[in-house]
Amino acid sequence: REAPELPIVERRNWLIHQHYIRKDYDTCKAIIKEQLQETNGMCEYAIYVQALIMRLEGKIQPSLELFQSCAILNPGSADNLKQVARSLFLLGKHKAAIEFYHEAARLNEKDWEISHNLGLCYFFIKDFQRAEEHLNIALRINKHDKTFMMLGKVHLLAGETDKAIEVYRTAVEFSPENTELLSTLGLLFLQLGKYQKAFEHLGNALTFDPNNYKAILAAGSMMQTHGDFDVAMNKYRVAACAVPESPPLWNNIGMCFFGKKKYVAAISCLKRAHYMSPFDWKVLYNLGLVHLTMQQYASAFHFLSAAINLNPRMGELYMLLAVALTNLEDVENATRAYEQAATIDESNPLVNLNFAIFLYNHGDKKATLDQYQEMERKVNRLRDNNGNFEFDTELMDMAQKMGAALQVSEGLVWTKPGKDSKSNGNSAAAAKAPGAPLGTNQALGQAMSSAASYNKNVLLKSLPCVFYSQLLACRTTGAD
């Protein structure tokens, strides 16, 4: 018996498929053209593959029109509707894509891809509740790493960090060798200050992929936060081979040099990061800090002003700007900058201490007392929230001297148990000359010492990063 001949419409489908999966697109398109001429444009599979090829070539709109033709030829195919929705999604028409995905879901309710992409569309229109709902449906149908990643991102943007961590933990149990999941979970623990768990997950990520630059940056930033600058630099050397043009990397390297007091090298690295990412306020913040340290106040003013334009809701930036203006002898604008810093900031006592020193040196005792009392309120709040919170030694000494100069209480909140004699000695020394200018360089000194304590907030960028990379950015790693 002879083999039956295939209908003319489908005669070359097998050949089209063979060339398509081999990525021989030119031959494939030539066969498709012949097939469509023979069938007067009625061959659904030939049109479908032609649309796939056009989309791979970046011709999204023409591919959309071809997929719509396939949907007309075969309206009962969920695959055709999924491809129409995918092209609409790539064109940024998320609401229209949602309609087609819902139509496809009615034809095939158990399709993981449809539920996942619906969650993705709702994510982009910022409907996080529905995005979470459809992503959970997708996970019930079939567990995929990318769905876990997307669901975690939805929770993070909705401000639900605990739920995001739970999702990533479940994902790591399902896929324990996925370095992206491990590094993301490590970054989240790092952001929450759980360094042991962060180091564990980042270490696992580096075990499976020693060149994972996100995990290297995160691990390096942890070491940098704890003052291990040489070890952190060794980590960054490995990352530099993988991503030599990474702004967060050069930002972190610059702050390592800053920690080692190699200020010229720090500025060189930070300016390289700034060249690569001119609108990253964290790099500008660090540049301003290093120039303040080098007493280059005009340059510091330039970088800090630029950082404020990009991030006008951060009190520490206004405080550092006020320090620069004070040293440039612009008292009026320095006062305004301190006032803005004190208005915006709600938790950092350093802002109010520096403002109090500034006011004291300019003879305004009443306003100085107000700022000192506000500083003590912030200190009490920090200690109530975290009993183990440790303040910078220089900050404590200066606060005690300020309290003695203002003839207020000895500032019990600043006194360390078992060191009363030392505290009293400092207070007595300050009381000998209550009229002498206090802390001429104190604001700068505290700004510099705050770099050490503040580095944990400045160190990692996610993102991406990011990090997100964009959501987990710390100042010394550049931010997400």
From TrEMBL:
InterPro entries: TPR-like_helical_dom_sf, TPR_rpt. GO terms for biological process: cilium assembly; protein localization to cilium. It holds the Pfam family TPR_11. This is BBSome complex member BBS4. The keyword Membrane applies. Residues 423-436 have a biased composition (Low complexity). The keyword Membrane applies. SUPFAM superfamilies: TPR-like. Residues 365-392 form a coiled coil. Belongs to the BBS4 family. Residues 416-436 are annotated as: Disordered. It is found in: Cell projection, Cilium membrane; Cytoplasm, Cytoskeleton, Microtubule organizing center, Centrosome, Centriolar satellite. Its main location: membrane. TPR repeats lie at residues 78-111, 145-178, 179-212, 281-314, 315-348. GO terms for cellular component: centriolar satellite; ciliary basal body; ciliary membrane. PANTHER family: BARDET-BIEDL SYNDROME 4 PROTEIN, PTHR44186. The lineage of its organism: Eukaryota, Metazoa, Chordata, Craniata, Vertebrata. Keywords: Cell membrane, Cell projection, Cilium, Coiled coil, Cytoplasm, Cytoskeleton, Membrane, Repeat, TPR repeat. It comes from Cyclopterus lumpus.
